[in-house]
C-alpha cells in the first residue's frame, strides 16, 4: 500500500507517529494509499526547522522571491496533467474540473510575481524639519495554512503563494482526504528554487491542527473548511495571540427574477448546483424564483437538463459532468438529508438517491436531486448539504427573495439573474454576502481581487488572495527618522507637532 508522509526540509519524509488515515479512490470506494497523521512533536519539529530557514528567505530581495514564483508557474503548467490526475483520483472530480482547481491556484501565484510592487512601503519626505517617515511591510515569520478537501490544489496555492512571496516560512496542513497534490506542489516549489525548510507540508488531523494553534512560533493561521471548525480555530488561534482568518461553509442563493432569460438561468443553475457534485463553497444550493409563474417555468427548464447530466468516474471521458462524493460518510450524510427533505414536506422533483453505475457499485456516487417548495424551517434549507442537491424556495416578491439570502446564517456567495439594471444594482448594494454575481452564478473573484464570505462564512478581518493577502501575511513597521543637521534642542516632553 502506498504510504504518503510529510514534506520537510526539501524532501518527502515518512511519518513517525504510527497513525495513518486511509486515502480513498471515491469512484471505486477503495483505499488507494495511507497518509501519515503527524504527532504534536512532528509538527513542532517542522515549525522549528521553518523558523531556522525563514530569516534568510525573508531577507532575500522580493524580486528574487518573485522569480521562484515565476518558475513555479512554469512547472505547474508543465505538470498540469499529472497534478490533475492525482487530484481526480483522490477527490473524484472530473479532469477538466481538476485542471480548473490547479489553474485558479496558479493564477494567485501569477499575482504573487508582483510581490516587489505589492510590498513597497510608504514614504513621506520632510514630515517635519529634517524628518522623514516611512512604513515597511515585513514578513510575520512562520505562518500556517489549514485547508479543506474540496480544492486540494487551489486553496493551498492561495495560502502558500502570498505567504511565501511576502518572505514568510509556511506550514501547510492539507486535508487528509486528498494529500497527494499538496505534496507534489511542495516538490515543485523546491524545484522552482525555494530554499529547504521554507515550505513544510505536515499531514495530519486534529492533533496537528491543535499543535499549530498552540505553537508559539506560528504567527498567523489561514483556515478554510467547515464553519464549526472555522469557529474553533478562530477562537483558539486568536486567544493564543495569533493573527487568524477562517473561511467557512456556505448556502448560496440564486435569485431568478421574472424577466431573466430562463434558459440562461437554468443552464447556470445546473452547472453551479451540480458541478463537482456540489462540493464547492461557491456552489449554488438554493434557487429563489420570484413568482409562481417564474418558478414553474424554471422547474420546467431545469428538469430535462438535470436528467441529462452524466455522472461518472473521472476516467470515463470528457463528457462526464460530475463524479462521486469524497467519502462514504459524505454520501450517507447527503442521502440522509434528502430523506429529511422528503419527510419535512419538500417536493422531490428529481430523485438522485437510487443512482447506480455498473462497475462502480462501491463508489460514492449520488445522482442529481432537485427539490421544489422548500421552506426556511427545513433542514435541507438550513444546513450546507455539500452534495448534488438543489433546493428551490419560491418567493412572491423581490423583497421576499432578497430577505431569504439576507436572513440565512451563511454569506459566502450569491447571484441574481435579471435583465433589469435597477434590481441588479439594488441587490449588489444591499445584500449582506461577500461575493455577488449578476447573471454570473459562481462569482469567484479573480486572483487580483479578494475572496471572502460574510456572516458565518468568514471570520477575521481580511480576505484571501489579492491585495488583502499581502496585508495578512505582513506586519507594518513605521520609522520616523531625523537627521538634525546641527539642531540641538535639548529634551522634549510633549508630542512634537510636525511644523
Ligand atoms: P473540514 O472543516 O472538515 O476540514 C478542513 C480542515 O480542518 C482539514 O484540514 C481538516 O483536517 C481539519 N479538521 C477537520 N476536523 C477538525 C477538528 N475537529 N479539529 C481540528 N481540525 C479539523 O472541511 P472539509 O470537509 O475538508 O471541507 C468542506 C468545507 O469547507 C465546506 O463546509 C465548504 O463550504 C468549506 N469551504 C469553504 C471555502 C471558503 O472559502 N469559504 C472554500 C472551500 C471549502
UniProtKB/TrEMBL annotation:
Cite the Aldehyde dehydrogenase domain residue spans from the record.
15-479
Q: Which Pfam families match?
A: Aldedh
Which organism does this sequence originate in? Rhodovulum adriaticum (Rhodopseudomonas adriatica)
Class of this enzyme: oxidoreductase
For this protein, what is any one GO molecular function term? Answer: methylmalonate-semialdehyde dehydrogenase (acylating, NAD) activity
Is Oxidoreductase one of the keywords UniProt gives this record?
yes
Q: What is its EC number?
A: 1.2.1.27
The alphabetized UniProt keywords are: NAD, Oxidoreductase
**Name listed for the protein in its UniProt record:** methylmalonate-semialdehyde dehydrogenase (CoA acylating)
Q: Give the record's GO biological process terms.
A: L-valine catabolic process; thymine catabolic process
| InterPro entries recorded | Ald_DH/histidinol_DH, Ald_DH_C, Ald_DH_CS_CYS, Ald_DH_N, Aldehyde_DH_dom, MeMal-semiAld_DH
Amino acid at each position: 500500500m502506498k504510504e504518503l508522509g510529510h514534506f520537510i526540509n526539501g524532501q518527502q519524509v515518512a511519518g513517525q507517529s504510527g497513525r495513518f488515515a486511509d486515502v480513498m479512490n471515491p469512484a471505486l470506494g477503495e483505499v488507494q494509499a495511507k497518509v501519515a497523521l503527524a504527532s504534536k512533536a512532528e509538527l513542532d519539529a517542522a515549525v522549528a526547522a521553518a523558523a531556522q530557514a525563514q530569516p534568510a528567505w525573508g531577507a532575500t530581495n522580493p524580486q528574487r522571491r518573485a522569480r521562484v514564483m515565476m518558475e513555479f508557474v512554469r512547472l505547474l503548467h508543465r505538470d498540469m496533467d499529472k497534478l490533475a490526475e492525482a487530484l481526480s483520483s483522490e477527490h473524484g472530480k472530473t479532469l477538466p474540473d481538476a485542471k480548473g482547481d490547479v489553474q485558479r491556484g496558479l493564477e494567485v501565484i501569477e499575482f504573487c510575481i508582483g510581490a516587489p510592487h505589492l510590498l513597497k512601503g510608504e514614504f513621506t519626505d520632510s514630515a517635519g524639519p529634517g524628518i522623514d517617515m516611512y512604513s515597511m511591510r515585513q514578513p510575520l515569520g512562520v505562518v500556517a495554512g489549514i485547508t479543506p478537501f474540496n480544492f486540494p490544489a487551489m486553496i493551498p496555492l492561495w495560502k502558500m503563494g502570498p505567504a511565501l512571496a511576502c518572505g514568510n516560512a509556511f506550514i501547510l496542513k492539507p486535508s487528509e482526504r486528498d494529500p497527494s497534490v499538496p505534496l507534489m506542489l511542495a516538490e515543485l516549489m523546491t524545484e522552482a528554487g525555494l530554499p529547504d525548510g521554507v515550505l513544510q507540508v505536515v499531514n495530519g488531523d486534529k492533533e496537528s491542527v491543535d499543535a499549530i494553534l498552540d505553537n508559539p512560533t506560528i504567527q498567523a493561521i489561514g483556515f478554510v473548511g467547515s464553519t464549526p471548525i472555522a469557529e474553533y480555530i478562530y477562537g483558539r488561534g486568536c486567544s493564543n495571540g495569533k493573527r487568524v482568518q477562517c473561511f467557512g461553509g456556505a448556502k448560496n442563493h440564486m435569485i431568478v427574477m421574472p424577466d431573466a432569460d430562463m434558459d440562461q438561468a437554468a443552464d447556470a443553475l445546473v452547472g453551479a448546483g451540480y458541478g463537482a457534485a456540489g462540493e464547492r463553497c461557491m456552489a449554488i444550493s438554493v434557487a429563489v424564483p420570484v413568482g409562481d409563474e417564474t418558478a414553474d417555468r424554471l422547474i420546467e427548464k431545469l428538469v430535462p437538463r438535470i436528467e441529462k447530466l452524466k455522472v461518472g468516474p473521472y476516467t470515463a471521458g470528457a463528457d462526464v459532468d460530475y463524479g462521486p462524493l469524497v467519502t462514504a460518510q459524505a454520501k450517507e450524510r447527503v442521502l440522509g438529508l434528502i430523506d429529511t427533505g422528503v419527510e419535512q414536506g419538500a417536493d422531490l422533483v428529481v430523485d438522485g438517491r437510487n443512482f447506480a453505475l455498473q462497475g462502480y457499485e462501491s463508489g460514492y456516487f449520488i445522482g442529481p436531486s432537485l427539490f421544489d417548495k422548500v421552506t426556511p424551517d427545513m433542514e435541507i434549507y438550513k444546513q450546507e448539504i455539500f452534495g448534488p442537491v438543489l433546493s428551490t424556495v419560491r418567493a412572491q416578491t423581490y423583497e421576499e427573495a432578497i430577505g431569504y439570502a439576507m436572513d440565512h446564517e451563511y454569506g459566502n456567495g450569491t447571484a441574481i439573474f435579471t435583465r433589469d439594471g435597477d434590481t441588479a444594482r439594488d441587490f449588489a448594494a444591499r445584500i449582506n454576502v461577500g461575493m455577488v454575481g449578476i447573471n454570473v452564478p459562481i462569482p469567484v473573484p479573480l486572483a487580483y481581487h479578494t475572496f471572502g464570505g460574510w456572516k458565518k462564512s468568514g471570520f477575521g478581518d481580511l480576505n484571501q488572495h489579492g491585495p488583502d493577502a499581502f496585508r495578512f501575511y505582513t506586519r507594518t513597521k513605521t520609522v520616523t527618522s531625523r537627521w538634525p543637521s546641527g539642531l540641538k534642542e535639548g529634551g522634549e516632553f510633549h508630542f512634537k507637532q510636525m511644523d
